[in-house]
Amino acid sequence: MTTVFYIASAIALLSTIMVITRYNAVHALLYLVVSFVSIALIFFVLGAPFIAVLEVIIYAGAIMVLFLFVIMMLNLGEVAVQKEKEWLPKQMWIGPGILSGILFVLIVYTLFQGEPQWAIVDMIGPAEVGAELFGPYIIAVQLAGLMLLAGLIAATLFGKRVKFKEKKEKEDS
Amino acid sequence: MTSVAMEYGIVLAALLFSLGLIGIMLRRNLIFVLLSLEIMLNAAGLAFIVAGARWASTDGQIMFIFILAVAAAEVAVGLALILQHYRRYNTLDADLASKMRG
Questions:
Q1: Which of B16, B94, B87 has its CA nearest to residue A84?
Q2: Most buried in the list A155, B59, B62, B100, measured by CB within 10 Å?
């Protein structure tokens, strides 16, 4: 099982690198789905089967399909890929790469200061998580529901087409 | 069952987070910026799960569920904003959204 962890993390890292280097948005999405599935495998190895299932259903399923819908609505073609190549010359990678690399080295440095901690993994199933979630964390669950409602209202408001056009005509006249 | 050193899990989460950070700083296409945000949120959730496995506690998994809800709400609002931006400027260039006029 430890080997599974290492292979899955290698796949996750490689496919994430592919996500941020692609020019075509749909290709990047497909690589991100691969990355999410391998991270779901890591969750399973770490003894969180419920979270592994949620990762596949919600992240790799729902959220990625939402991205796909928007990309299809925007109807970007070859032109967008060409423009993306213009926006992303090779030397652009240097600055952000160095800064993020320094941050990463700092995290690893502070992490390995103490004694190595071994995670002895027990399986924690959905029953325990659900009992805890609807017990002490019930207020947080209700707050999350409120936040999702607010997100829904905001998305429907921003998604409206009519309101903006009227405004633009006013600006033009 | 199995034993994986906690540090390796956290290092993996840190690597994924750094990759997402590079993506946010680098890309001008708004869709890629939102994808990189997803990568970063997912890496934070991975760190929670690894810590939860280390101390055999359910709290890590519960925090992941909340992160999932935040990610879903953020993506819905973000994608609606991207659509609005595309209708206004007919491009996905993030640099054009710097005027701040209603």
A1: B94
A2: B62
